[in-house]
Amino acid sequence: MSETMVDDTKGGSAPLPYSADPSEVRDWLQLLKPRVMTLVVFTGLVGLVVAPGHLHPVLAATAILCIAVAAGAAGAINMWYDRDIDAVMRRTQGRPIPSGKIEAGAALGYGIFLSVLSVGIMGLATNWVAAAVLALSIGFYVFVYTMWLKRRTPQNIVIGGAAGAFPPVIGWAAVTGSVTLEPLVLFAIIFFWTPPHFWALSLWAHADYERAGVPMLPVVAGARETRRQILLYTVLLAPIGLAPWLLGFAGPAYAVVAGGLGLGFLYYAMTVWRDPQDATGRSLTNDAPARRTFRFSLLYLALLFAALAVEHLVLR
After folding, report:
1. Which residue in 17, 46, 47, 255 could disulfide with 305, CB within 3.0 to 4.6 Å?
2. Domain boundaries, the chain
3. CATH code assigned to 25-178
4. Could you give the CA distance from residue 44 to residue 305 in angstroms, rounded to a whole number?
5. Sign of torsion, CA 144 148 149 150?
6. What distance in Å separates the CA atoms of residue 293 and residue 268, rounded to the nearest whole number?
7. pTM score
């Protein structure tokens, strides 16, 4: 913290009000995992948009803000707990806690405060069903995934993937005050999307996970089994992506987009399955199939949920 001294009217000096260093603000924002938050907020928004009923625009914006803050709060607590392994992984060494920019205890307090704040405001602004699901999502990510599963089992992403699947359920509940089959279908899409998405990442970042002692699937079972599991989950995901249309809460335009995206994801999963490069021990390039599949998986989920929202808003 810096203080600038200026002369006052009596010839002395007085401190100017503290002005936060922009780099310090960025460090606190980085604790919220903003890149991860973007997709979380978007799927929550889609859940809110497609839900039956109406929510005042101000309350809807408040609900989305609460989802964003809650996701960031869970990310901050995750960074606090994982600060030891983040310090030894190349892609996470620059995070605010291992790099010494933010003290661990302060990060934990920050995360807890934002968690309580987001849940409380969600309950007051919308309803307590949405607030309860929001609290469940934070608790699941922190206690089930981060503290229990991540360092103990290669199924960490499979079970822990539920944490990232809650936002459309929260958005739906914010409007309706209930959780029905439709948001659970959206939950299932994200749940089955998560393993191939993260396992594609872990194929080209396996050395980091191995160094940190995190039992990601490529570290424990090898690259070949990981490629097989990516393909298996993608085969399961393709028809689940069509479920909103099959169940009648999405139309033919969505079905066309979902079908095309499902086939595209299957194509990329097949390229990962057929390419043995990640099993050779050589460094993967930006053009490696695993990395391309990871990137497409992000596009898949974003476009799938965008199609659902656009069809609901424009074509219905």
Report:
1. 46
2. 25-178, 180-316
3. 1.10.357.140
4. 10
5. positive
6. 5
7. 0.88
